[in-house]
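Handout, section 3.2

Students often ask what a structure token actually looks like in practice. Rather than define it abstractly, here is a full record for Type II secretion system protein GspF domain-containing protein. The first block is the sequence as you would receive it.
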Amino acid sequence: MDVILQSIDHPRLKEKVVQVKERMLEGESLSKALVNEGVYDQGYGALLMAADESGHQDEVLKTLSKHYKDDLERMLSSFLNRLEPTMIAGLSLLVGFVLISIMLPLMNVLQTLG
């Protein structure tokens, strides 16, 4: 657990892992400590507890890791899909503003000359 703590940079996650470590030192199982500290929700917690009893904790943790990674990629992709049109619209407005700010003085100069 100390190696894990050294590799974590996020302060809230680090605090959670410290609390999980303290619970484990008090004799609680890893799965119960993770659920009780809110690292995993109840659904995943039940899966972890079943894996803990059956001895397949490593496989379940790998599966949960893959599931969270897939969820993160899906949410990030969805966010980017929503962000792209907004950025394009914003940049179009910016380019339009720049064009108008250049063309209006030119039109005034042409009207004065003509």
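Discussion prompt for tutorial groups: The chain has a mean pLDDT of 90. How would you have guessed this from the sequence alone?
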